[in-house]
């Protein structure tokens, strides 16, 4: 009975917890690094989780984003934002990682 | 990098405690030095960015702190959209009072004329004075109706406003400079709001070329709806290009040049091009003239259920660069149409007209649409599919579903 209850709680925590609970640590660390240094996203965006205060692009603390939408934006750019994928500034893997980081921290 | 990771000390426990911890960790982390202006973008008390904390939060849909839309029902039932309800779409950070300094000393240079000159705002005010109503509309207004994945704010109808501008006709300024050089083809306007960012002007400067003929009706505006042009809308001086999409109405204006070539900056060369889905490039048309368009503002799904009986169906209609001639309204999804009546003052071909159709509706659900014509052109039923979701004027997507009880 106790095991059943434990499993129920586990299932509950897994499905109903914020996405950050199941975030992959290594990806988040690497994503933060890309955000702040490799790609320099911090220079243009506010994101509390990165400690950044740039004011060119949207304040990422004010928007809810999916990983897919961030990947799209980072790959193809918009306005003054470079097309990090098309212009090969970041690798596909780097884009996926930084997008994972942003989607897990933006709008929180 | 290793040093950074040590400093961050990120481990599962940090992440399990959620983003509040992340923020705290990051606050102590070494991040890239940031020299970008950040004085005016913090969140204000009403859930709006500080630089527009004077706006009416209830009238606005906040897509981000840089993209803020007016509710369909809040564009202004008395023709002019109040400043507190006007949408926000800025490519560069809004300049601060500190960056702008004494507004009367704001400078704009006029080039590509017989006698190039630089005028202060104070000097411009002595050259001429007029007031004109125009529609300010983001090129992507209606993007939210496109079904392919379009990057950018998902505007529906509210990236548009009808505004009274006060300033000097550009013709007067050109006259004061001895006229335009003979070989000019374009009027090219440039903002200076990229300068505080330190970013590469080729990528960040909002410099837009439009056909030279636009100068005949254009103006340099310092007032918006009777008050000094707010910084958030490009104050203290803005180009107004009547009938042309918002991006051409350059904010924080620093230069007007009559040129033989289009500007080569990114915002002209590759951005704001209406290209097929999957294609892009400077060979495609730029977002210049706005097409004929209309939409219902009341009743809508925002205004709740409608009481059966007599109903006033109200909306706005614009002709683009021509005067809007007629509007028809359908309450059955476009199967049949009735001509609506224009009401309120006619503020010229560049302003929108309010229209109303009085009708009687019984209980049920209705799809209400409007269809405007400027004579040669009328709204198409469907949107023109394009990569970035620009220039949408199809009537079907802009229709509204209402419930009458």
Entry keywords:
heterodimer, A: mainly alpha, 49% helix, 4% strand, globular, B: 405 residues, alpha+beta, Sulfite Oxidase, Chain A, domain 2, Immunoglobulin-like, 3 domains, 5-stranded mixed β-sheet, 8 helices, 29% strand, disordered N terminus
What's this entry about, in short?
The complex is a heterodimer of chains A (108) and B (405). Chain A is mostly helical and 108 residues long.
* Order of strands across the main sheet of chain B: 5-4-13-8-9
Overall geometric form of chain B: globular
Seen as an oligomer or otherwise, the chain set is heterodimer
Beta-strand residue fraction of chain A: under 5%
Q: What spatial order of strands do you see in the largest sheet of chain A? A: 1-2
Give the name of the CATH architecture of chain A: Orthogonal Bundle
What is the average per-residue confidence, as pLDDT of chain B, rounded to a whole number?
90
Please tell me about this protein's structure.
- The complex is a heterodimer of chains A (108) and B (405).
- Chain A has four helices and two strands, in the order ααββαα.
- Chain A is mainly α and 108 residues long.
- Chain A has a single domain (19-105), classed as Cytochrome c-like domain (Cytochrome Bc1 Complex, Chain D, domain 2, Orthogonal Bundle).
- Chain A has a two-stranded antiparallel ribbon.
- In chain A, α2 packs across α4 and α3 packs across α4.
- Chain B is of the alpha+beta class and 405 residues long.
- Chain B has helices spanning 2-8, 12-16, 19-28, 97-100, 121-127, 170-176, 201-204, 266-269, and strands spanning 60-64, 67-70, 88-89, 107-111, 117-120, 130-137, 160-169, 186-191, 207-211, 219-224, 227-228, 238-240, 253-259, 293-298, 309-318, 326-330, 338-339, 341-343, 353-361, 364-373, 400-404.
- A five-stranded mixed beta sheet of chain B has the order 5-4-13-8-9. In chain B, strands 6, 7, 10, 11 and 12 form a five-stranded antiparallel beta sheet that branches. A four-stranded antiparallel beta sheet of chain B has the order 14-15-19-18, with no helix packed on it.
- Chain A binds chain B through residues 18, 20-21, 23, 25, 28-29, 32-33, 36-37, 40, 42-44, 46, 48-59, 62-63, 69, 72-73, 76, 78-80, 82, 104-105, 108, and chain B through 1, 4-5, 8, 10-12, 15-16, 18-19, 22-23, 26-29, 31-32, 34, 36-38, 40-41, 43, 49, 62-67, 91-93, 149, 151-152, 194, 197, 199, 203-204, 266-267, 271.
